[in-house]
Amino acid sequence: MSTRILAIDTATEACSVALYNQGETLAHFELCAREHTQRILPMVQQILAEAGLSLTQLDALAFGRGPGSFTGVRIGIGMAQGLSLGAELPLLPVSTLQTMAQGAYRVTGAENVLSAIDARMGEVYWGEFSRNAQGVWSGEETEKVIKPEQLLARAAALPGRFATVGTGWETYPHLLGESPVAELFDGKISLPHAEDMLPLALQLWEKGIRVNPEDAEPTYLRNEVTWKKLPGR
At what angle do helices 96-108 and 197-207 cross, to 10 degrees? Predict the structure, then answer.
């Protein structure tokens, strides 16, 4: 496939970039809490230099749309908008929770994944994902904000064996110790990696799903839940 897609993610404590270049992948990942604005552009420049490409030679740019840190998600979207406007590239919005599910598949082969990111304020961002034989994930409609104690109730309601990924599980480790659900195992992914955005971004690209830079929006699950509870809405 001759497609070239750059992926960037700053939605969590991690900062990562990855490049799909005609079937080959380059990726860089760093833990850089509170340094996203200083690190993300140099990482983009480095990976393009390694590939010998300029932004204008790309087909599209994928960004982590969240959920995650409010500040981190906004930094990533702002950077994606700036880069795409300058190079006239369409944007591909990729779920942070689904990215971690893809990471679990890459590392462990898991095809059923429960993603949980610590959302602070005693809550977690949650998603339930399953991968079919064609490599397509379902479950974006399950993304929500829930209380930690709801994790096991959700897991217990699902059939089959699921991998657990994300800081939500790590923040509340006692929950796994109390788990009545025997079919949970460690998916070996704590934070999203941009390289795991690439298969998802390619699927969006092939389906013709893309957004203009000015239309790129973050996914703030907590804000959406609050909005839905407003009286009169």
Answer: 120
